[in-house]
């Protein structure tokens, strides 16, 4: 569906609004820990000698004490992360306070009692002009671009990949 591509584009278009933007791979515990270790290194946090779980806790504490950050939890399709807690992802990896924004890409319907905004990408259809811009980039239309857009169902990721291939 192109959830990650849309999140990436949002980050790019709004990079001036946030002091820190971090992409957190959220499909497994190992990927989450690696992403938090990378974030800690970018923040120059003193993590030498700490195990991955300690680095995650230390980095979350930093997020809770600072503002201006934007976290993208990408591919968060298993909130339990194979544990007994359905909300393991949120309980163990989301900052509980602080002045930052969390964006989660997932195929699941995210419902809690908390205030949040869910954007169902299945309800959003890219218009022809936007789809053509994504496909063609700076290239000229040879008359087949709209047919390609329609064949690919206006899907952002498919259009982006096709556009990349057209530039080769």
From TrEMBL:
SUPFAM superfamilies: P-loop containing nucleoside triphosphate hydrolases (SSF52540). InterPro entries: P-loop_NTPase (IPR027417). It comes from the Eukaryota. PANTHER family: NB-ARC AND TPR DOMAIN PROTEIN, ZU5 DOMAIN-CONTAINING PROTEIN. This is NB-ARC domain-containing protein. The lineage of its organism: Eukaryota, Fungi, Fungi incertae sedis, Mucoromycota, Mucoromycotina.
């Amino acid at each position: 569906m192109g959830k990650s591509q849309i999140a990436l584009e949002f980050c790019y278009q709004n990079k001036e609004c946030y002091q820190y933007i971090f992409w957190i791979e959220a499909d497994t515990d190992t990927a989450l820990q690696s992403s938090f270790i990378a974030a800690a290194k970018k923040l120059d946090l003193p993590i030498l000698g700490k195990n991955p779980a300690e680095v995650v806790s230390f980095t979350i504490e930093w997020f809770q004490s600072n503002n201006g950050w934007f976290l993208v939890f990408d591919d968060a399709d298993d909130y339990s992360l194979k544990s007994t807690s359905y909300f393991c992802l949120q309980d163990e990896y989301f900052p509980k306070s602080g002045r930052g924004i969390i964006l989660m890409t997932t195929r699941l319907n995210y419902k809690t009692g908390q205030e949040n905004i869910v954007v169902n990408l299945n309800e959003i259809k890219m218009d022809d002009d936007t789809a053509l811009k994504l496909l063609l980039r700076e290239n000229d239309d040879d008359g087949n671009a709209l047919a390609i857009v329609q064949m690919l169902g206006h899907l952002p990721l498919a259009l982006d990949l096709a556009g990349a291939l057209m530039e080769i």
